[in-house]
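Hi,

I'm pasting everything inline rather than attaching a file, because the server keeps stripping attachments. The sequence lines come first, and each chain or strand is labelled.
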Amino acid sequence: MQDDYVYGRPQYEPQIPPAPPPVLRTQVHRFEFTGSAGEYFRIWIVNVFLTIITLGIYAAWAKVRTRQYFYANTRLAEHGFEYLGQPIPILKGNLIVGGLFLIYSLVTNFAPLWASAAGLALAVAFPYLIFQSMRFLAFNSSYRNIRFRFHGNLMDSYIHYALLPLLTIPTLGLAFPYIAFRQRQWVLGNAAFGSLKNKFLGTSGTFYSIYASAFGIGVLVAIPVFITTQGLLTTRATSLSGLGGISGIISLLISIYIVIIFGSVFLQQFVYARTVNYTLNQSRAGDFMVFNSDLRARDIMWIRFSNLVAIIFSLGLLSAWAKVRHVKYLLSHISITSKGDLDSIAADLNDQQQSALGDAATDFFNVDVGL
Amino acid sequence: MTTFKANFFDGKTAHAYPVNVTVSGQTLEIIGSDISLQKALTDIRIEPILGKTTRVIKLRSGEKLESIDFTAVAALEQSLGANKGMRFVHKLEQSWRLVLVCFVGLILATVGFIRFGVPWIAAQAAAVTPISVLKTITDSAFKSIDGNLLQKTKLSATRAAQLQSIFARVKNRIGKDYPYELMLRSGAEIGANAFALPSGTVVMTDELVKLAKSDLEIEAVLAHEVGHVIHRHGLRNLYQSVGIVLLAGIFVGDFSSVAGLGTSLPALLLQSGYSQEFEFQSDQVAGKYLLETVGSTKAMRDMLENLEGSREKSKPSQTEKTIQDIFRTHPITPERIRVLEEMERK
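And the predicted assembly:
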C-alpha cells in the first residue's frame, strides 16, 4: 500500500538505510471547547436581531459567525479549527431554498395535486442535497490550514439515502439499524483530513444491539407510564362531569404528549451516545490516528433533558447556554491517539467543485448528516 | 512599523511555524526559523474578529497566519480599513448593554413585523398575483373538497335560479373583474356556511339558505363573500401563513429542538388574529352594499345572529364547543354586529 501521507519528521531524521523506521511516540490529544455561554449568547442575539431587521439577508453572515465561533473554539493539540464558508455563496443558497420553500408551501396549501409532485421532486433531490452539503461542509472545514474532504460519490448517496431506506418497508422497520449503519459507514468511510483518509471498521451487529437496548428501555418505561395514565384517565372521567372533566382530560392528554416527547428525547440521546462512541472508536485515519470517544448515555440524556427544560422555561433565551454546555460535554469526551506529531499530515490539493445549495437546503430542513 | 508573534501554516502540511510578522509600509514580512516571506498588504485578508477567538490572516497564495496579539492585528485591520461592518457587529456583541438594546429592538421589530410587515407584504404579493394563478389555485382547492365535504344541493331548480340571480346582482354591483361562480351545495359536515375561494368561486350551503329569514339576508352574505374576493383575503391569508413560518424559521434555526413544541400553535393563533381583520373588512363591504341598496345593515346583523344561534344549537355537547372556541377563526359575533350598527348610524 502506498502511503499518501508522510509521518514522522523525515527531513530531520538521518536517513541511514536499512535503519528501522523512526520511532514514533504515541500521542493522545483531547478535544476541548473554549467558548463561553455568555459570549455566544451575545453573538446569537445580535445575529437574530440583524437577521430580522435585514429581512433575513444577514442570516448567511449569522450562520458563518455561529459556525466559526464553534469551530475556532474547538481546539485540539493547541490549535483551533476554522470554518471557511463564505457568506455570499451561503446567501445565494438561502435565497434559492427560500424561494423553493415559498413555492412549495403555496402549492401544498392550494394545489394538493401538485403538492405530491413537489414532495416527490424533493425526495428525488434529497440524496443529491445531502451529497452536496457533505462536500461543502468538509471542504469548508479546516484545521491548521488543511481542509477536510468528503470522497463519497453521488451514486452512493442515492444508494444510501434513497434505495436502502426502502428496505424498511418489506422488513417492517427491522432494517432500520442496518440502514443507519450503512449511512454512517458511507459518511465516515469517505471522510478525510487533507490526504489522510478515514477508514470505518464497524459492523452492523453493534448497531442492532444499540437499537435493541433503546427499544427495551422504551418498553420498560412506557408500560408503567401507560398504566398510570390509563388509571388517571378513567377515575377523572367518572368523577368529574361537564367542562371540568373535559379540561382535565385535555390536560392529561397534554401531559402524556409531553411524556412522549421527553421519552423520545431520552431514547434518541441514548442511541446518539452509543452510536457516536462506536463509530468513532471504529474509525482509523490511515494507520496513523485512532479516535476515542467515551460519551456516557446517561450524562447526555441528563444534559439534553435539563437543556430542554431550561430552554422552555426561559422562553428560548437559555438555548445559547444549552448549546455551549452540550458541545463542551461532547468534545471533552472525544480524543485522538496518533503515532507521532500531527504536524506532518499533508494537504489534498485537488480541486473540488462546491456549491452552498445543498448546505442551505439540508440546514433548512434540519437534516442531520453524519455526526 | 509593528511586529507581532503568530503561527504560520503553509497549507501543505499541518505544521505550525512560529513566526514574527512585521508590517512596514505596504508590505507584510513573515520571519521564522525556516520561513522568510514578504507579501504586499493588498495580498492579505484579515478575517473578522469574533469573540476571543484567535485572529486569522489569510494570504492570497493560500498560507495562513494565526495570532493572539489582538491589539496588533486590530491596528493593522484599522489601517487597512478592512471589515468595517463586522467590526461594528463585534462591538455590539462585546457589550451586554448593546446586546440588551438589540434584544429590545428584536422584540419590537418582530412584533412590528408580524403586526404590519407580514400583512403588508402579503397584501402587495396578493395584489400582483395574476388572476390565472388564482383560478388554478381555486380549481384545485375546490376539487379537493367538492364531493366529500360538500354534496349535491337539494334545493329546487327554481330556488337555485333565484339565488343565482341574487348573486349576479351583487357581483355586477361590487364584484370587479373576477370569474365569479356561485356553487350551491349541501354541506353535511360544515353545516350552515358560505365561503369564497380566491378567484371568485363562492360556495353556499343549503343549510345557510334555509337558515336565512329573507333573501336580503342571503344577499348580505353573498356581498360579504364578494368582499373576501375583491380584497383577495384568501391569497393574503396564504401568503401570511408562509411569512409566519419563514419568520419562525429564523428564530427556530438556532434552537431546533423546541421547534415542534413552540411554533405551530403561535402561528395558528396569529393566523386567526389576521382572519378576524378580514371578516371585519368584508363586513364593511357587505354593510356598504346594504346601505346603498336598502339603506340599512340590519339584514347582515340578523344573519350573523342566525348563524350564531345555529352554531350554538348544532353543538351536541359542551366539549366540542370549548375545543372549537379556542381555535375559532371568526370574531366574536356581538362585536361584528356592533360595528355594523355603527356603520348605519353614520
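Chain B touches chain A through 64 residues (CB under 8 Å).

If the labels don't parse on your end, tell me and I'll reformat.
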